[in-house]
Design a protein that fits this description.
Number of strands: 0
Number of helices: 7
Order of helices and strands: HHHHHHH
Distance between the termini: 25 Å
Strand content: under 5%
Length: 131
């Protein structure tokens, strides 16, 4: 990949890039919340409550739909951008403080540093288009 192609994958707006990084960092929290939303059911004891939500089941379903869409977008973008290094790239972009050297030392990624950062740039470009 030449430098022109790398620049094509650059997210132009700095604040948008920061937002995408923070969305990616929330990946594990989103998966945990999806698990709790799948098993959680509102307590039905017959006592009326003023929770502000007329249908808590519907609210949970809407939240689950939004979270699953974001999780699927993150995974799809990592698959497209990372190819066979999908799992290492996904770990790298969703873990705060991870670096190429950390991933390489833990045998999570098996490409050179330049290729890794190209995959990472492509991931965030695709995530920008998907979200």
């Amino acid at each position: 990949m030449n430098s022109r192609e790398i620049r094509a994958y650059k997210v132009r707006n700095k604040s948008r890039m920061e937002e995408l990084v923070r969305i990616a960092w929330q990946y594990r929290d989103m998966i945990d919340e999806l698990d709790t939303l799948a098993t959680a059911a509102p307590e039905m004891d017959g006592t009326p409550r003023g929770t502000g939500t007329s249908d808590p089941t519907h609210a949970a379903a809407v939240r689950r739909e939004k979270l699953s869409g974001r999780v699927m977008a993150i995974e799809r973008c990592a698959r497209v951008a990372g190819g066979e290094c999908y799992e290492g790239l996904l770990l790298g972009v969703t873990t705060r403080g991870s670096s190429y050297h950390w991933l390489r030392a833990n045998n999570k990624i098996h490409v050179g540093q330049r290729q890794y950062y190209e995959m990472k740039a492509r991931f965030f470009y695709l995530l920008n288009l998907a979200i």
